[in-house]
Amino acid sequence: MRAEISTMSSELPVRKLSRLGNELHLTAAIAAVRLFPGHHEWGAVFALLVRRCADDWVDGKRFRAPAASVQSMSIRRIAASLHRPYTTTHAYVRGLLKTGAVVEVEGGITLAISAAFAPATTGFMTLAHDSFVRLAEDMSHDVAFPAPIRAPSPLLRKMTLLAAFDAWLIPFEYAAEPVTDWTSRLIWTVIVVASVRHVTEDPALSDAYACQPTPDDIRRPIPLRQIMALTGLSYGTAYRHCKALEALDVVRYDRGGWLLVSSQLADERIDQGVRAVIDYFCKRIEELISYGFDPSDAARFYIAGRPDYASLDPDL
């Protein structure tokens, strides 16, 4: 039974929808890990620049490198948006410049349009777009979104891309708590999703724990070496951040691996944050519906087809 959208998510299956949102953020995190091996932090800066430069790169229904870049962003604005010190952000940007992903222009930093990196950029854009369509499709099974009243607008693809990157950047721009360190957050996201992936993919279990957190004995721990393989982090770095998360009381070591602690979800502040993110997703999906998007017929809006959830198998 689908629920009508509520401003405060009071009638929605919050835990089920939260799991779907976490899958979106793991997709984003692993995309950054794979695009910038050893430097996942650069992914947030790159995503921010893609969002900023979308007008240059969206040509109707296509994503393609422009003949010339118009949009750019200063390092100070990047730092302010991501709530990072200027010196740290500057170091991230210098790293991106060395990869050829971005270039310096008079107005600041913009996406590189060279043939060497442009395919990776458009691939990143396509994954972001399709992951948000996937989120809308999955949420539509439980949320009674309104039906579109118009044919898809020529602007729909760009608006979907912008919504996708806004959603991908939520952990960096708005919802940093309770884990503020970016590497700790990467590991936390992996643990959060891995603990309940079997619940997310099982309709009966997903419905059984649609409104209440899954108990710890239902959650499945993920071994440290699997976390290392998925994130590209060394043993020492991964272990140190797992211990830091344990000190925050958001994960614990159990049954040979690391497990999300469900008791944290009883924290009222965290619960309000979860509901706010779900409300935001709903509002952005409704915005796309006004451009002709139909979550109940999402298959026709994918660019490269529905993307799988990020694999938890380090060999894939």
Structure description:
The protein has one domain. A hairpin with a 2-residue loop joins β3 (102-105) and β4. It has helices spanning 14-35, 42-52, 54-57, 75-82, 86-99, 118-139, 156-168, 170-173, 182-200, 203-208, 224-231, 235-247, 268-289; strands at 58-59, 62-63, 102-105, 108-111, 251-254, 257-260. With 316 residues, it is mainly α. α2 (42-52) packs antiparallel against α7 (156-168). A two-stranded antiparallel sheet has the order 1-2. Strands 3-4 form a two-stranded antiparallel sheet.
Name the descriptors.
316 residues; mainly alpha; two-stranded antiparallel ribbon; 6 strands
Give the proportion of residues in helices. Answer: 40-55%
The description of the largest β-sheet is:
2 strands, antiparallel
Rg of Cα set? 19 Å
How many structural domains? 1
Structural category is mainly alpha
The ordered string of helix (H) and strand (E) elements is HHHEEHHEEHHHHHHHEEH
Note the gap between the termini.
36 Å
